[in-house]
Amino acid sequence: MLFLLAGIFLLHVATVILLLAATIENAWWTTGLMSTDIWARWLWSGAQWNYTGFQTPILKAVQACSILACVFSVLVCSCSSLSSSHWLKEKRFILSGVFQLLSCLCIMIAASIYTDIFHKNESGWYGPSFVIAWIAFAFSFISCIIYFILRKKTT
């Protein structure tokens, strides 16, 4: 059981790192001369990248969901770490599973909105941050399923 919990903790750390990288990194959509993330659009002009604002209400929803995914994922790590008290030890798999499910749903909503709304008529490709967001979704979903399975085994 100790190895399983250590593996789950490492999965959480990887998920948090991937979520933070997807949220912070500036490459959700790229072309040769432009890079767009959920915060701004960067244009290559001369020999440097130039910031251009790119804010819409829908993009703010993507930002909020991405940040919430990071927060819920950090809460999962906190619930797992603070499981030394008796009442929390009994409920740690339930709390962690629920927070991980919320994190999973938030990053899925953010990536889905971004896919559906933005860059329909532009030539380019999805950047590494977009791919990292979907990988973080898969990791958080796997972690959520593991927590719900462990909850069944402990009760």
Automatic annotation (TrEMBL):
Transmembrane segments: 61-81, 93-114, 126-150
Subcellular location: Membrane
Gene3D superfamilies for this protein: 1.20.140.150
Cellular compartments per GO CC: plasma membrane
Record InterPro entries: PMP-22/EMP/MP20-like, PMP22/EMP/MP20/Claudin
Membrane topology type: Multi-pass membrane protein
Keywords for the protein's UniProt record, in alphabetical order: Membrane, Transmembrane, Transmembrane helix
Annotated Pfam families: PMP22_Claudin
PANTHER family the record matches: EPITHELIAL MEMBRANE PROTEIN 1, EPITHELIAL MEMBRANE PROTEIN-RELATED
Protein name from the UniProt record: Epithelial membrane protein 1
